[in-house]
Write a structure and sequence with these properties.
The complex is a heterodimer of chains A (about 375) and B (about 350). Helix content of chain A is about 75%, strand content about 0%. Chain A is mainly α. Chain A is globular, with a radius of gyration of 22 Å. Chain B has helices at about 5-30, 40-60, 60-85, 90-115, 135-145, 145-150, 165-170, 175-180, 185-205, 205-215, 220-225, 230-255, 265-275, 280-300, 315-330; strands at about 305, 310-315. The chains are: A mainly alpha (about 375), B mainly alpha (about 350).
């Protein structure tokens, strides 16, 4: 017997958690002597008040969809992949190698090639923690954290001593050739004579992110593999009893997860920077954790949560520009969202369960 | 490499290992009691910020130290609430705490000092000493006026010269070791080293320690014996907070002279790595953090280490603690087995 109706579990609990997170964020803004209402207005205008704002919001959203999906796929198998940051960074390396060393005739082919490169590198970076978890029982949280740092050092080394063009002081790769430049969303609109989001980085990758949401939904709920992943996540012993190999599921899930995180690079490295720079992920891998938690590991939830964080990210940038609230406010909000929707979930859930149980018993009496 | 260079590198290793050692012992208490803590980094960062802020506002590093411990304890309380009281996911709580500290320190720092998240440099200055006067009178009643003046006008931890350090300096071998390596650190370095035997004794020779270890291995047994699992775990998490507070305060008011944004720079995670390396034991923590401190010291001194035909880039040295930890975790060099009930919230009735 369920303690709560489904709608309360799926919608009410996260909404209350989210409300608490934002209420405390508002208190933080008050504490630093600013008006939360003004801050909210600045953020809404900056992120959604113009097509320019939307262009950036959708660009960030694209990043967070990929990293959020990466965390949620792993979560279905009860694996907590904190390594999205490193996997996305390595994905960037894959994109850079594909774009720099292969002469592509057209951006469509380059995009396909870059997707393979990004996913392969991201998946490869998730493979070692996966195999260590599956075969040696090393805790995947710790190994993926360690791999984030190793990735940072590796990327630093690759950029400084290998991909950096001769004579350049900047630790960044050469610019990608023009044939690999992805069309921006503004280009689509411009083709129809509509001026939308000029000079914004939102690009065709956004559509691929939407496709990825559908693909992940189909994978988790409509395939045998997805069933095995969920069964393994619910109960490892039951899954093993049903003939599901824990090693196989752990490794495959982490490869998919790492591949999704890596795919983020086609947005930020290929679509925006058009070269590989140091620290290109900018924390998007970690935001994926908040996005997955908030989205309850469902692609639709992830999409909505990614949109919210895209809005926060772009709005936060505008805040830093127009008010004296630093950009780091977003990190605080992100922390509070993770805290309330993730760690303090029971704080909201327990009273709610008690409420619904009491109401049902009251009806029966 | 001559003898003096070795002494200098070891000396810098001791400085660099101190925050790692304190944070590692902090994690040890928490994890031996069955509460995973990947929020060491955030707690250290918060402590570094509150310590530097209060030290800058009052000109008194001791008040700063207290503030550092308090700042870290606040986050410990959140972690305890989430992972013990509400039986939430301890890893997620740790992740949230790291971000909370990373964001809040900059937000508050900008509000208080307007220096882009930095605190002012902690150098002795007249404008910093206004608030310390009442303490001065009180302290001079106890220690005499001279000592009181040094204590209250100290905005950061200064190096302590151990007795006879200067006199012994010219004695070959032992002299430099004593004068450079052992003497001349701030008090928190000595505190950190003393924490190692103290932790060993507390864990292995007291009733509290026995219960703490038991609650990390088999909380049901402790509960059956009539001891509160909740209280024990909160005690462990609080000790963890205090030690992280010391680590953060040392970073901002001992090792450096002030707080800068994200100044912990992954040290909390290196401490976590050291804890695994040490297999959750206090003396092991000493060895592991010394090794990682040494790696950092060598990487700082030789950005590109040339070993005959091959040159090792500094990035590799920086990544080495993490690589070593992964190797240890993989169980190729002795198996690291965490406390059995680690990460599991305890439910009294099933």
């Amino acid at each position: 017997m369920d303690k709560m109706p489904k709608w309360a579990d799926v919608i009410l609990t996260p909404l209350i958690s989210l409300f608490l997170a934002f209420a405390i964020s508002a208190l933080v803004i008050l504490a630093i002597g600013e008006s939360p209402w003004e801050a909210l207005k600045t953020m809404v205008t900056g992120a959604m008040g113009s097509s320019y704002g939307w262009g950036f919001t959708l660009y960030y959203t694209t990043n967070f969809i990929f990293t959020g999906l990466a965390v949620s796929v792993a979560y279905h198998a009860s694996l907590f992949n904190i390594g999205g940051e490193g996997q996305a960074g390595l994905g960037g390396l894959g994109v850079a190698m594909v774009c720099l060393f292969i002469p592509w005739p057209h951006w469509t082919l380059a995009l396909l090639g870059a997707m393979v490169g990004a996913a392969a590198f991201g998946a490869a970076w998730a493979y070692v923690p996966a195999i260590l978890q599956a075969k040696r029982g090393s805790h995947i949280v710790i190994t993926t954290i360690m791999f984030n740092f190793i990735a940072a050092a590796l990327m630093n080394w690759v950029l400084v001593s290998w991909l950096r063009p001769v004579g350049s002081m900047d630790p960044a790769s050469a610019n990608f050739p023009a044939s690999t430049h992805l069309p921006k969303i503004s280009d689509f609109f411009a083709a129809f004579g509509i001026e939308w989001g000029q000079h914004t980085p939102a690009n065709v990758t956004f559509l691929i992110a939407l496709l990825a949401c559908v693909a992940v939904w189909a994978l988790i709920w409509r395939t045998k593999l997805g069933y095995e992943i969920r069964a393994f996540g619910r109960s490892e012993s039951a899954a093993r009893y049903a003939g599901i190999s824990p090693v196989r599921i752990t490794v495959i899930t982490m490869l998919i997860s790492g591949g999704l995180a890596g795919l983020m690079a086609i947005n930020n490295v290929m679509g925006e920077a058009e070269r590989l720079i140091l620290n290109n992920v900018e924390g998007a891998g970690f935001i994926g954790i908040a996005v997955a938690l908030m989205g309850r590991n469902h692609p639709v939830g992830v999409l909505l949560a990614a949109l919210l964080f895209g809005f926060l990210y772009q709005g936060g940038g505008e805040l830093a520009l127009w008010t004296s609230i630093p950009r780091e406010l977003i990190i605080v909000i992100q922390a509070l969202v993770i805290l309330f929707t993730g760690a303090l979930d029971n704080m909201v859930r327990m009273p709610l369960e008690r409420f619904f149980t009491a109401r049902r018993l009251g009806k029966r009496a | 490499m001559d003898f003096n260079t070795i002494i200098q590198i070891l000396d810098s290793s001791v400085r660099l290992m101190t925050p790692l050692l304190l944070a590692c012992l902090a994690g040890l208490y928490s994890e031996r009691a069955g509460v995973f803590d990947i929020g060491l980094e955030g707690k250290m960062l918060m402590a570094a910020f509150t310590a530097a802020t209060v030290a800058a506002l009052t000109g008194n590093v001791w008040l700063g130290l207290c503030a550092g411990i308090l700042g870290s304890l606040m986050l410990s309380l959140i972690h305890g609430l989430a992972s013990i009281t509400f039986r939430g996911n301890q890893l997620i709580s740790g992740v949230a705490i790291n971000f909370l500290a990373s964001g809040l320190t900059v937000l508050l720092g900008q509000k208080i000092f307007g220096l882009g998240g930095r605190t002012p440099n902690l150098t002795p200055g007249a404008e910093l000493q206004a608030i310390t006067t009442p303490f001065h009178d009180w302290l001079s009643g106890i220690f005499g006026p001279d000592m009181a003046a040094t204590l209250t006008t100290m905005p950061r931890f200064t190096e302590i010269r151990l007795p006879f350090a200067e006199a012994l300096r010219d004695v070959p071998v032992i002299g430099p070791i004593y004068a450079e390596l052992i003497s001349g650190h701030s008090i928190l370095v000595y505190v950190a080293f003393l924490c190692v035997p103290a932790t060993w004794w507390l864990l292995n020779r007291t009733r509290f320690g026995l219960r703490l270890r038991a609650v990390g291995e088999n909380p049901a047994s402790v509960d059956t014996a009539g001891v509160s699992v909740t209280r024990l775990r909160f005690a462990a998490v609080a000790i963890c907070g205090v030690l992280c507070g010391l680590a953060g305060a040392y970073l901002a008011t001992g090792l450096a002279a002030g707080f800068v944004k994200d100044m912990t720079a992954g040290r909390g995670f290196i401490a976590l790595a050291a804890l695994i390396f040490a297999k959750w034991r206090p003396w092991g923590a000493l060895g592991a953090t010394f090794l990682f401190g040494l790696l950092e010291a060598v990487a700082n001194r030789y950005p590109n280490l040339e070993l005959g035909p091959i040159t090792i880039p500094s990035m590799f040295m920086n990544a080495l603690p993490y690589i070593l930890t992964v190797i240890i975790l993989a169980g190729f060099v002795g198996r690291a087995i965490p406390p059995r009930a680690g990460g599991e919230p305890y439910v009294k009735e099933r």
